[in-house]
Amino acid sequence: MPERGTQKVAEAKGKKRSLNESIIGRRNRRRKQWKTIFKVLGAVLFCVFFLGLGYAATEVLLRVSETPIPAAELPAATQSAAEKEDTAVVKTEPLRAMYYPAANLGNAAAAAKFIEEAQAAGANAVVFTAKDTLGFLSYGTTVAVAEEIKSDRNAKPGASNTLKAFEEAGLRTVAAVSAFRDDLAAGAKPEYAIQLKGSKVTAWKDTKGRRWLNPWSAEGRAYLCSIVKELAAIGIDDILLTDVCFPSDPLAQTVFPGQSDLSVNGRNQILLQFISEAKTAAGEARLIVSMPAKVALDGSQAWGGDLWKAETDVFAIDTRDAPWMSSNVWGGTKPVVEIPSAAPADMGKGSYILLAE
Q1: pTM
Q2: Which domain does 65 fall in, by range?
Q3: How are beta strands 336-339 and 96-99 bridged, if at all?
Q4: Which position has the higher pLDDT, 348 or 122?
Q5: What Cα–Cα distance (Å) separates residue 116 from each residue in 159, 208, 241?
């Protein structure tokens, strides 16, 4: 009996020990679990804290980057095309030009007197005839064909000095160039000319005995464009093309080598082509194309209708054939220069070209 009691006591003590060990184990495991939980929570809180700081900093930086930069501080590459166009727009000053006789080119005294008169009259430009209707040039040329046919034989020495004096006085230079009405070149280069029907290569003459270049002659157009290019190269500001047309005389006895369509529309197309070629040759110089007032309003076969579709910078309307017309009648999107009715046949000494805007 004592042994059985002792045994029961021992068993009870063992169970109690096992229970205590189990409880301690569970406590240790819970401690470890809580430690793990606290570590995870700590890491999460740490990340949240620094993410919050990062977000706040980012928001501040974004707000700073969205702050408008004054236009003056913007790099050129960041300005819009519209802003560039706005800053590039320069209004053209009205052209108030006086005519200077080509015979006085190279005459320093005449040029000085003219500059005084022009400034007193409020003129800002000077017009001179660079190539007349006979085909002669008023300045020394280096164009090969012009040198060959001696088209500058009447040029005055020192013409470039006169042009430089005009520039230094603040006057724009406007060089008038007769296009297809060119007796000299058409006679010396009949292959460039409107030819007489039935002949081998003979230049046709109008009722006044003048010869004309053929608008369909690529060589003839190239010759004219080479003169335009040369004038631009020597610093001429504006090139005024006149006689961009066909003869108004009957053309029954004529031949136009190279032509494919002698209709009004065909004539118009080749004249517009020449103006486009001249515009390219002019480069940075401004191209002005002249039309008689009647042609501008009603058209003409000699002009292939009219030239309003030409790729030019400015149109010149010659009112000498219609003195009753006013500059107010001219429309279009391009500036219109008016040659007044008071101007004599060769532009005229003291005449003006007025810009109607």
Answers
A1: 0.71
A2: 1-84
A3: unpaired
A4: 122
A5: 19, 39, 27
